Amino acid sequence: MRQTRGGNSHGSPEEVIMKKNMPILVIPLLALLLVFGGCAGGGKGKTKENCSNGLDDDGDERDVALDRVQVGDRLRVRPGERVPVDGRITEGRASVDTAALTGEPMPQDKGPGDAVAAGMVNLNGTLVVRAEKVGRDTLLARIISLVAEAQRSRAPVQRVADRLAGWFVPGVVAAAAVTFAVWLGVGPEPRLTHALLTAVAVLIIACPCALGLATPMAVMVGVGRGAQAGVLIRNAEVLERLARVDTLVFDKTGTLTEGRPMVTRVEARPPFTTAAVLGCAAAVEQYSEHPLARAIVTHARQTGVAIGEAADFRAESGGGVSGRVNGQEVRVGRAAFVGAAGATAADAGSIGQEQPGSVVYVSVDGRLAGHLVLDDAIKATTPEAVAALHRLGLRLVMLTGDSRVAAARVAAALRIDEVVAEVMPDEKLRHVRALRAGGRITAMAGDGINDAPALAEADVGIAMGTGTDAAMETAGITLVQGDLRGIVRAVLLGRAVLRNIRQNLFWALAYNALSVPIAAGVLYPWFGILLSPMLAAAAMSFSSLSVVANALRLRRVRL
Fold it and tell me: Which of 84, 176, 220, 480 could lock onto 465 through a cystine, CB 3.0 to 4.6 A?
């Protein structure tokens, strides 16, 4: 289909920040559903961006509106396009990026008979897909439905200040009435004047301005402090929940890890060197569009290895690539493909059995020169962030659609408390729901469309700013840089804001508990002191000022 070329959809940091101010989730989710499964009609006014490439029984190709695609139809998906429906491949082979739906960071080679789902990206090659599920029946549409359901079921948080005000205001009115009655009955002459002045003074000095400012001032300053630290907070409720979180749930791909294949190790066999193996591989792979090829070339450039020119470049789908580098025949790819050149690769297949990640073999003139290991590497800042979260007393859980082997490796390296691997988006949501049902206050951190239901279900959703729009629009907090240390800052900020709110409420109530009796005239029988309404107004303003000053201290809180 032509309408969904791959690329960076989240935009610049400035654009991300603007998106955070949109409180409505329904619009972007419906837009996703419209693009992948529900665009209307192919008549007048419909553009090709809302169409898929359909094939009739004679093999003729024509543009078909997505809402007219039916089960059994065949659709052509070209390189760089997203799969529009759930179905199976009938023709062609290609590497498919499934990370948005499953969390699997490494592209998967798919061919005839393999299943694909709406939202997956065809990286290279041309595929013909027979539709099995369309529109609202696709996996992507079900994810959107789960998000909406999770958000509808969330109960609103009751504000502490609102509950206190519900008791405080009637109490103050009652105190003013009692003051008026006492002064009118037993006060000095003129009794009516003294009764009115003292009652008015009580009402003025007990005005709940400080009580009303306690929460919004702390939240306003806290949200601004978070923005300075790269933590974008959607609303005050998020901060209230975040301060009480005791369980943090992570996605793996793109959250704990880089989310893309990277060369983690290069091994060479004598007489070849690692630089020679990497250089030969990069020389041939630079002509390939495969994501693993791009990772190899990028690693060679970053390490300063010279990349030569390759002649007679050839690519074998599902096998690898070959070419002549400096007059030598170089093959790069699977063990069977490298061995097909007569390489001494009888034991090559066993090399990758114990390797975490994908293994790419390199042969030169029929000899196995070495291999490269590519994996989704852990972000450099992740170990520091995980250690800090442990020190904050949080239980850490990993939920990932990736394989158990890959998940176990990352969990062991980071000392994650609990790991659940090979789970689909609805299973992530159910696991988060089970944690909440067990009394856990949960925060969920993720970056993909597949994380959106769990982000919506969790008490606090945390999205990576480098992730998808669906995740960012669902979450209550966005980390602009996608750095997990931002979660540490967010938790510290949430706790600091809640502590500040409690301080504001305490001092507001303590101030009124002290000032109301004075305004009522309890000191008059002994010291002859009465508080005039003007002094009461000044004292009331001072209490509000003290709350504002205390809230402004959050600007200097260390995160």
Answer: 480
Q: What is the DSSP letter of 417?
A: S
- Provide the phi-psi class of 366: left if phi over 0, else alpha when psi is between -120 and 50, else beta: left
- How is residue 356 written in tokens? 């975490």
Residue 541 vs residues 161, 198, 273, 325, 544: alpha-carbon distances, Å: 19, 18, 77, 81, 5
Rounded-to-integer distance, Cα 107 and Cα 400, Å: 16
Helix residue spans in 363-484 (DSSP H): 382-391, 404-414, 425-437, 452-457, 469-474
Q: How far apart are the first and last CA of the chain?
A: 46
> Reduced to 3 states, what is the DSSP secondary structure of residue 233?
strand
Cα 408 from chain centroid (whole Å): 21
295 phi and psi angles, rounded to 5 deg: -65, -40
DSSP per residue over 36-64, as a string?
III---SSTT--GGGEEEEE-TT--EEEE
d(CA 461, CA 445): 6
332: enclosing H helix or E strand: strand 328-333
* Token pair in block for residue 474: 């669902």
CA 525 – CA 388 distance, rounded (Å): 59
Cβ neighbors of 251 (< 8 A, separation 6 or more) are: 103, 398, 399, 400, 428, 444, 445, 446, 447, 448, 450, 451
Q: Does residue 410 contact residue 250 with C-beta atoms inside 8 Å?
A: no
Q: Answer whether 88's CB lies under 8 Å from 116's CB.
A: yes
Residue 116's identity, in one-letter code, is V
Quickly tell me which residue has 């169409």 as its tokens. 51
Count of other CB atoms within 10 angstroms of residue 524: 17
66-93 per-position pLDDT tens digit: 878 888 888 989 888 888 888 999 988 8
Q: Name the amino acid, one letter, at 127.
A: L
Using CA atoms, how far apart are residues 535 and 518, in angstroms rounded to an integer?
A: 11
Structure tokens at 299: 């690693």
Residue 100 pLDDT level (bands cut at 50, 70, 90): low
Asked whether the bond before 425 is cis by omega within 30 degrees of 0, the reply is: no
Q: Phi and psi at residue 306, in whole multiples of 5°?
A: -70, 135
Tens of pLDDT along 502-544? Answer: 888 888 777 777 777 777 777 777 777 777 777 777 777 777 8
Per DSSP, the residues of 245-262 read: --EEEE-STTTTB-SS-E
The residues annotated with a catalytic role in the active site are 251
**Which two three-digit tokens encode residue 559?**
């995160």
Place of tokens 């007489």: 271
Q: Determine the Cα–Cα distance for residues 28 and 26; give it in Å rounded to an integer.
A: 6
Q: Which of 98, 136, 144 is nearest to 117 (CA)?
A: 98
> C-alpha angle 549/532/542, rounded to 5°?
0
